[in-house]
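pasting for ref
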Amino acid sequence: MSPFRTSFASFALLLLSACGGGGGTTAPAAQTPSGIVPPLTPADPSKGAGVFDVNYGQFRGVYTFLDNGQFYGLHFVSGNTLAGQPHGFLTSSNSLSNLEAIAWANFIDDVKMVGSQESAGRFGHSFGGSGVNVAIKGSMGSFTAAASVQKTQASVSSKTLYNDPIPLATLAGTYGGVMRTVGLDRVQEAVVGFTLSASGAFSVSNAGCDFSGKLSPHGSTGIFDVDVKVGGVACQLKNTLKGIVTPLGISAAATSLALQLDTADDAQSAVFILSR
């Protein structure tokens, strides 16, 4: 068992911060007397959606809430060290007092730091005005944070990453960065030569796998949906992953993207943090 699970303070001093967290699968819905499992109710779009920066103190998160109830998060420690990826489907009942089970890929809370799944991950949120309040809970403890406004495309920009569509041609280019995985028994790896075309097609070879796919705008937002094919003789990833691409910042000086991919059963995750 990780020392982080027994003492958050000592774990934080070792930079093995609580922000990682690994995935538990979504809790099954209660069955009706007839044995039929009712479908989950999507989150009410009127309650808000967007990309938010939240700061828990020991770690920070970038959270993307889509209008269909999907939630994707990134946790960072010590500045920009990628530590975890919480994600899942939040129902209309989700709140700060009603946390729901999520998948939570934890990239640092294991002895070898090769990634593991947090089995007790739960998440809740509530929108208020232009901001959001969040709560997250796992085997390492419980944490709350808030953001008063949506994350903008740049520090001097009034355009948000969610509400303002971003042309794919603006993001086209060659990127580099890092990749973390869960389910492959691999540590963090450098990424070079990630190419993205003006049409949204991309490709890269990493972690023994050849990735290819295409970005498509998520409605009229600045977020992109993506299906990815992976191959390669030595590749241990399943052949299809799905997720989103969230632009983390867009400016004349630099553009950065987060590519968050998961298998349908959340047994494997691959997260790229890229800059151009």
